[in-house]
Amino acid sequence: AQSVSQHNHHVILSEAASLELGCNYSYGGTVNLFWYVQYPGQHLQLLLKYFSGDPLVKGIKGFEAEFIKSKFSFNLRKPSVQWSDTAEYFCAVSNDYKLSFGAGTTVTVRA
Amino acid sequence: DADVTQTPRNRITKTGKRIMLECSQTKGHDRMYWYRQDPGLGLRLIYYSFDVKDINKGEISDGYSVSRQAQAKFSLSLESAIPNQTALYFCATSDTGTGGIDTQYFGPGTRLTVL
């Protein structure tokens, strides 16, 4: 079975700071990788996804993620965060059409 | 996403009661999923269905059952609710995208409290 590990449980940073959230997965086969965001009181929304091709993928709201196959990692980045980026972020891995989620990272951006 | 709706949005019930959570979608997707979200655990898959005649257990199906009444409807039942089933429940849908890869789209969630 595959598993997904997110390194940080809670990240607190100031506006304009850079953000990087770590995600590692354990599965040796071909996987599809996702980052979802959950704003307070809302449902999960897709930020970005990687299936194949360029390992650097760009998503909505200025987020990007880099797939490093040798490290089984799919880290999420944003160069300059805003207060509105306060949310919980989930990394997810799928194969066989089922998603496995990490535990999530809560990001708090202070104005 | 208004294309995936869940009812009720909030529910408080007592131990031993039967409860049903409903999910409807207008996206025309074949695949539907039920997850529960617990703090610090992320989302865990309860059941999934790839079409109306297909039902599969996820990683935490014990204590739950599902019904796929139509392509657009997928219900989750707790036959006899217990307090550790208190959680946020999400329905999701997907279809087969390019190369057989699909992206899941989530409903707004149902917050269930079992006293």
Average pLDDT rating of chain A: 92
Radius of gyration of chain A: 13 Å
Major sheet details of chain B:
7 strands, mixed
> How many alpha or pi helices of chain B?
0
Strand fraction of chain B equals over 45%
Instruction: Give the count of helical stretches of chain A.
Output: 0
Helix content of chain B: under 10%
Using DSSP, what is the number of strands of chain A?
12
* Main sheet specs of chain A: 6 strands, mixed
Order of SSEs of chain B: EEEEEEEEEEE
Give the CA-CA distance, first to last residue of chain B. 30 Å
**Count of strand segments of chain B:** 11
Look at the helices and sheets of chain B and give the structural class: mainly beta
Question: What percentage of amino acids of chain A are in beta strands?
Answer: over 45%
Name the biggest interface: A-B, 23 and 26 residues
> What would you call the shape of chain A?
globular
Evaluate the radius of gyration of chain B: 14 Å
Report on this model:
The complex is a heterodimer of chains A (111) and B (115). Chain A is mostly beta strands. In chain A, 0% of the residues lie in helices and 57% in strands. Chain A has strands at 3-6, 10-14, 19-21, 23-26, 32-38, 44-50, 56-58, 64-68, 73-78, 87-95, 98-101, 105-110. In chain A, the strands form 3 sheets. In chain A, strands 2, 5, 6, 10, 11 and 12 form a 6-stranded mixed β-sheet that branches. A 4-stranded antiparallel β-sheet of chain A has the order 3-9-8-7, with no helix packed on it. A two-stranded antiparallel ribbon of chain A has the order 1-4. In chain A, a hairpin with a 5-residue loop joins β7 (56-58) and β8 (64-68). Chain A is globular. The N and C termini of chain A lie far apart (41 Å). Chain B has 115 residues and is mostly beta strands. Helix content of chain B is 0%, strand content 56%. Chain B has strands at residues 4-7, 10-13, 19-25, 31-38, 42-51, 54-57, 65-70, 73-78, 87-94, 105-106, 110-114. Chain B is globular. The model of chain B has no long low-confidence stretch (mean pLDDT 91). Chain A binds chain B through residues 4, 9, 32, 34, 36, 42-46, 49, 51-52, 90, 92, 97-104, and chain B through 1, 31, 33, 35, 40-45, 48, 50, 58, 90, 94, 98-99, 101-109.
